[in-house]
Amino acid sequence: PAMRKMVGQQPASTKFGGPDDDEEDGLVELEDITPSTSKGEAPSKAPSKAPSTPDSKELAGGSVAFAVVLYAFCSSTLLVINKVSMHLVPDAPFILFCQFLASSLAMKGLGYAKPDIEIEELKWEKAKPFAAATLVFYLCLLSNTQALKSVNVETVIVVRSCSPIAVSVLEWATLGRKLPSIPGIIALLAIAGGAYIYVAADKGFQIEGYSWLVVYFIFIVLEMVFVKFIVDTVPMSTWTRVYYNNTLSLPMAMLSFVGLGSAGFLTADWTPGAIGAVLLSCVVGVAISYAGFNLRKLISATSFTVVGVVCKLLTVLINDTIWTQHSNAMGHAGLAVCIASGIIYEKVKGR
Fold first, then answer.
1. Which of 39, 56, 156, 168 is found 20 to 30 A from 272 (Cα to Cα)?
2. Quick check: 327 and 335 in contact, CB under 8 A?
């Protein structure tokens, strides 16, 4: 049988303009290795490439499906958990610091418990490019969490829903991907239309919350594309990426204490409910750190963004069930248009 080997290669240039769709994640396929024959010998039959079997396709599809479900569950629940945590302990840098510290310590503990799992220590040659992605990631989370002080969960979802529009253009300009097809563009415009309906129906409009949402939108777009670029060009395991991302975020969270003059955790009423909410956010934070990086290496940046939008259906259901601070019927209609358009976009974008 043919011997096929997948070898990770780092591009010679670190500038934007990433790999083609056929070489995503820097994977290249070597030629089949065939035995040489000497003179006078009947040449042996060249091995043929093993055809892609239904089992292998199902296995690959199953891996992507599991990655999507895991990320969707974590992403859907963490937004509501963070909203509750911010309500009980109104200090975004402190909440994020706890989540980063928990994820970093979890990776160290996992490395000691299972040495066969590849979790690299911090190395300057890898930490340097990764630190830029971590900064974008942190600013994205900080603006999201700060916005949750003033706006409800659905408002954050609508802003997130609009991000594929900008991500698709930025991905085309920097990573060399194709622009969406005409049906895909129509679906993206429908997402924007749903967002307009939601904002028009939002009776709890607060300028402070929406200012943070503008910052969030900018950095969520940059984060979706730039982190995909780092995943493609800085070779390391998913567990190592989780360790790097959370460990490098710790000093940024500490600087935010000073920059925002934040000390809300010192005056918070630390009831069992508040402690439980913060601890739960740390647990789900560890899970989403792995789920996010694992899914990013399997799908494109735009697809990853759309998955994040669609999975918010569960967020809305949870939010409506346990929380009184949610949008009205018209706002829910606009949100439904955003999510439905996201599903349609994922189906038609490449046609």
1. 156
2. yes
SS3 91: coil
Residue 302 class from Cβ within 10 Å (0-12 exposed, 13-18 middle, 19+ buried)? buried
Using an 8 Å Cβ cutoff, are 333 and 154 in contact? no
> φ, ψ for residue 163 (rounded to 5)?
-65, -30
Distance (Å, rounded) from C-alpha 224 to C-alpha 191?
18
At residue 92, what are phi and psi to the nearest 5 degrees?
-60, -50
* pLDDT digit string, tens, across residues 190-230: 888 887 787 677 655 555 567 888 888 888 888 777 877 77
Q: Which residues of the chain register pLDDT less than 70?
A: 1-62, 199, 202-209, 261-262, 301-302, 305, 309-310, 313, 323-327, 346, 349-351
pLDDT of residue 293: 78
Alpha-helical regions (H) of 148-206? 153-175, 182-201
193, with CB counted inside 10 A (0-12, 13-18, 19+), is middle
Run of H or E including 72: helix 54-88
How wide is the angle at C-alpha 216 spanned by C-alphas 212 and 219, nearest 5°?
140
Question: Which three-class secondary structure state does DSSP give residue 8?
Answer: strand
Backbone angles phi, psi at 28, to 5 degrees: -125, 150
Contacts for 104 with CB less than 8 Å, ≥ 6 apart: 243, 246, 247, 250
pLDDT of residue 174: 78
User: What is the CA angle 211-216-222, rounded to 5?
Assistant: 140
pTM > 0.70: yes or no: no
Cβ neighbours of residue 340 under 8 Å, at least 6 residues apart? 190, 194
Contact (Cβ atoms closer than 8 angstroms) between residue 17 and residue 232: no
Q: How far apart are CA 285 and CA 79, in angstroms?
A: 10
Nearest-10 crossing angle of helices 182-201, 153-175: 150
> Do 95 and 89 touch, CB atoms closer than 8 A?
yes
Confirm if 216 and 147 have CB atoms less than 8 A apart. Answer: yes
